[in-house]
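ok trying again, last paste got cut off:
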Amino acid sequence: STSKMLVFAASLLLLQVVPVVFSDIYEVSNGVYSFTEDGGYISMFIVTGEGVMVIEPVSTQSSMAMLEAIRTVTDEPVKYLFYSHNHWDHASGGQVFKDVGATIIAHEETYDWLEANPGPDTILPDEIWSGNQNDVTLGGVTLELHYFGANHGLGNTAFLLPAAKVAYIADNVAPNRVGFTILPDFDIKQWERTLGEYLDLGFEKAIYSHNNNPEPIKGGDKEDIVEMLQFIKDLRDGIHAEMENGNMNIPGTLKLPKYQEWAGYENWLAMNIWAFMLDEGMGPYNAGPKP
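nice, full thing came through this time. structure:
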């Protein structure tokens, strides 16, 4: 039933390792704000002078709270809402912004999946885009939408404000945290490639949809991506070393003490190991297009 699906969707939030939240809204750069309702998911909005652009609705509850937060900053109309990718826990709640006149935009892969797999709280985008980049300009502010092919989910889009040098990245980077549970819907090798390509984007600050630094709403920078790449390398190298030693119980024995302070280490590291081993043994779960 719809109510059961909503309860399950809510349970996904409980699985997230939620850091301490100091504020619901934070001005990252002039006119650029991060927003979180509870610390588990972080969104972003941009006030342009001619309207507001919003990234990541998350849910109806989060979207309603974000709209209230926007109204504390500006009375400009919300013109655009962007989905980062197809997963219900990110692309839900869009009706809140559609009801106030926003146009919802997403990559065509996101649209196609949501059309085939509607969630209890999702609505389809109004406009779709394809290819590797799409630019949207409002009030003289240009927002670049970058697609890097397969990595996590479908249509996963990194957003860049080149003038402000601020990016928004969903799921592929979660600072100070190991990979999420079993790395659901990750193509691990393409994820790793994408992280390397993120480093070529022209930003100095990034808002990450999940962030376990002490003040997650303040975002991070490229060092968070470098650390995620190192974690992937260390995990893979550790697995291969154990294989060479004939270890048949790698998820139960491999420890990476370097990351023991990261969120999720105790509960999720073994799951990450299983995901890497299955990915190498069976091939990637995500069969989306390669770049």
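cool. Confidence is low (pLDDT under 50) at residues 19-23. The CA atoms of residues 93 and 105 lie 14 Å apart.
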